[in-house]
Specification:
The complex is a heterodimer of chains A (421) and B (170).
Chain A (H helix, E strand, L loop, with lengths): L4 H8 L11 E5 L2 E4 L4 H10 L11 E3 L10 H17 L13 H7 L8 E4 L13 E4 L2 H10 L1 E5 L3 E7 L8 H12 L8 E5 L8 H9 L8 E3 L4 H8 L19 E6 L6 E3 L7 E3 L10 E5 H4 L2 H11 L9 E5 L3 H9 L2 H8 L2 E2 L20 E4 L15 E4 L2 H10 L11
Parallel strand pairs in A: 2-3, 2-4, 4-5, 7-8, 7-10, 8-9, 13-14, 13-16, 14-15, 16-17
Antiparallel strand pairs in A: 1-6, 11-12
Helix pairs in contact in A: 2-5, 6-7, 10-12, 10-13
Chain B lengths: L6 E9 L6 H4 L10 H5 L10 H4 L5 E4 L11 H9 L3 E4 L4 H9 L3 E4 L3 H4 L5 E5 L4 E4 L5 E3 L5 H9 L2 H10 L1
Parallel strand pairs in B: 1-2, 2-3, 3-4
Antiparallel strand pairs in B: 1-5, 5-6, 6-7
Helix pairs in contact in B: 7-8
């Protein structure tokens, strides 16, 4: 019986020839990513236990992202604790304000993510980095503390689901629509405890930026990880950023999957997930053109340069509708600079959008666009739970950057294909 | 950390809904702190704003499927524990919440039929060894799979970090 890519990576990192789903393994970690919200409590736990050294500073990457530039005094204290800790520990891979970015976006962008790695971070969207053929999963602060202290962590080897992407996306339809479609079919617990593996010729037309959006939302189906085996597109992305050696793993032909699902990309249309679950996805033609008070383009899901290019292409020469606010948040400083050089920031500003520096910001109701009671927001982020972006009576709709841009122009939920003739 | 008792009793707060997520358990607007006593003031705020005024030390939360889905914030476990919640009994759990609970030595019990035999305000007895949940008001019962040896060991050691330390010293 063969193994999946996920089983192979976990076996290789726990000194085993093979592993089976359900087994508990102790796996060595190649990369630990740390941010300003979940790391300070982990550091406090270690100090309390008298553990004063991390296992290996060279395997840790630190970037403040959730509430920076500091949104209030308490967040300032968190960012300060993070900064002081990384100096004390001699962690060199640190991205201070002005070079920073949302951790799941900056880690691959800056060449820290290599195929075959095991990666954890105290954040559920760590699944993002699985798009480069890694086992990458989110943990809480206690697991993070254990990982920082020992360089390893116990995992139950997950079962895997296989998603075969066929064909290519029609105009106006993007990778966000693929993942919202999948979650609408399997539900927010459809992949609970499982690895979501993707393959198929449909990947050939998806850039790394597009793929990160898909693996990013594995957690929104309850998945432990999302993973895409490395191909030429992934190799090009990695080699442009790192000269380090790596190992690519591939699933065996007779690997076992709990479920196989084929998605015909040619048949997809823009999708909007209605409040208040990411699984409430509907084809845009099936829903009402609800008025939006706010449009938000950003986050670790859809704040990459390709997302901004798509949004700018649609919004160029238009104005944000009266009665609607539009907020654009590049996911990293590098993306912000690229958008500036390409003139995208000017397009957004001319249209009447606010452009922020990189932050998780309002995606989780932090700052830079928090919603009031009864307000509506169409957002390119990953969750539309009650209270996620602010007031518990606010309503959040999830969609692609293209749908967000079209909606910003009209002020009501709008099919981006109306602007892509 | 004392050994886990075989039996626990407490009063139930029932949320008969699936997918209660960590944004509802502790909204991100409170994540600029991580002190348990501070987080406790806002536990369950976006699903039940009155919860913290009613909850008493030792109470139980009973809920539906996929409890604790969404964000990995361990603050959700801390907020509940800080508010006095002794144990969560859900139909099923999102994996990160379950892991965070066990890692903190906090009881998270998976009991598929709990919602059918317990209502808010009922006094409930949990028999951890037998895997039995009993409504002390009307005697109705539901079974659950007792904690795995691994989870019990972690909980009895006081959580993952003390467990790792104990193993390193052994």
């Amino acid at each position: 019986m063969g193994m999946t890519i996920t089983e192979k990576i976990l076996a290789a990192h726990s000194g085993r020839d093979s592993v089976r789903p359900g087994e508990i393994v102790n796996a060595k970690l190649d990369l630990i990513v740390a941010h300003d919200v979940t790391t300070p409590p982990a550091v406090a736990m270690l100090k309390k236990l008298g553990i004063n050294k991390v296992f290996d500073p060279s395997k840790i990457l630190v970037t403040p992202d959730h509430f920076v530039p500091n949104k209030d005094i308490k967040s300032a204290e968190l960012a300060k604790q993070l900064r002081e800790w990384r100096i004390e520990q001699g962690i060199e891979r640190y991205y201070e304000i002005g070079n920073h970015g949302i951790c799941h976006a900056i880690a691959p962008e800056q060449g820290h993510v290599l195929p075959g790695m095991t990666i954890v971070c105290g954040d559920s969207h760590t699944t993002t980095m699985g798009a480069l053929g890694t086992f990458s999963t989110g943990v809480g602060s206690t697991d993070l503390a254990a990982a920082l202290a020992t360089g390893e962590l116990w995992f139950k080897v997950p079962e895997s689901m296989l998603f075969e992407l066929k064909g290519s996306l029609p105009r106006g339809v993007y990778s966000k629509d693929i993942i919202l479609y999948i979650i609408s079919k399997i539900g927010v617990d459809g992949a609970r405890y499982q690895a979501m593996e993707y393959r198929g010729d449909g990947l050939e037309s998806l850039s790394m930026e597009a793929r990160f959006t898909i693996t990013n939302m594995a957690i929104e189906a309850g998945g432990k990880s999302g993973i895409i085996p490395v191909d030429g597109i992934a190799e090009d992305y990695v080699k442009a950023r790192s000269s380090e050696a790596y190992t690519c793993y591939y699933s065996d032909d007779d690997a076992v999957y709990t479920q196989r699902m084929t998605i015909d990309l040619d048949q997809l249309e823009p999708i909007v997930a209605l409040p208040s679950l990411p699984s409430n996805g509907r084809f845009i033609g099936e829903i009402e053109r609800v008025k939006m008070d706010q449009v938000y383009i950003g986050s670790c899901t859809n704040g990459r340069i390709e997302d901004l290019r798509i949004a700018a292409q649609i919004i160029k020469g238009h104005k944000v509708a009266e009665g609607t606010r539009a907020i654009v948040v590049p996911a990293t400083t590098e993306i912000w600079k690229t958008a500036m050089r390409e003139g995208l920031l000017e397009i957004f500003a001319d249209a009447g959008c606010v452009v922020s520096t990189a932050t998780c910001g309002a995606c989780l109701g932090g700052f830079m666009g928090v919603l009031g009671a009864e307000e509506t927001c169409l957002s390119t982020t990953n969750r539309n739970f009650v209270g996620r972006m602010g007031h518990p009576k606010a309503k959040v709709y999830l969609a692609s950057p293209a749908t967000a841009a079209a909606t910003a122009i009209t002020g009501t939920i709008t099919d981006p294909r109306e602007f892509l003739q | 950390m004392p050994e886990l008792p075989d039996r626990l009793t407490g009063y139930a707060h029932v949320y008969p809904r699936e997918h209660i997520n960590t944004d509802e358990i502790i909204p991100a607007r409170y994540l600029n702190v991580h002190e348990e006593s501070e987080l406790a003031k806002y536990a369950m705020e976006d699903i039940d704003a009155d919860f913290v005024r009613r909850v008493l030390p030792g109470d139980f939360i009973i809920a539906g499927e996929n409890f604790g889905c969404g964000s990995s914030r361990e603050h959700a476990v801390w907020a509940l524990r800080g508010a006095g919640v002794k144990v969560v009994i859900a139909k099923s759990y999102a994996r990160i919440f379950f892991r965070n609970a066990i890692n903190n030595g906090f009881l998270a019990i998976e009991c598929p039929e709990a919602l059918e035999v317990i209502a808010t305000g009922d006094q409930v007895e949990l028999d951890l060894r037998a895997g039995l949940l009993r409504n002390l008001g009307n005697g109705r019962e539901a079974t659950f799979v007792p904690l795995s040896d691994f989870a019990r060991e972690l909980i009895e050691d006081g959580g993952l970090l003390p467990h790792i330390q104990k193993k390193a010293q052994a």
